[in-house]
Amino acid sequence: MEFKELKAFVAANDNIEIRVIGHAGSRFYQVELQDMEGARHPLTRRDKPVLFRSLDDVYLELTRVGIHRAYLVHQVPHDEMIGREAHYSDPLTSRVPLVF
Length: 100
Known about the structure:
By secondary structure, this protein is an alpha+beta fold.
């Protein structure tokens, strides 16, 4: 989903979840939206995923389009390395609420 589509999408869909994904070993963050049907929409620019260098950059862009709540999801490759399924969507263990 492109930035220009994001504001209209958020206005039309009130039951979505915004995830700010931080990858272990990386200093970059990626934003994705998940709608009620479970479809994930990564935030893109020119059809490439947008990577942010800090949470402040994420806050700035999301507040610009009217979003004031999101969840920080920190992905750690440990589970995948030992053969277990990753549990990034588990709300109690992997998500931290962000309000800005």
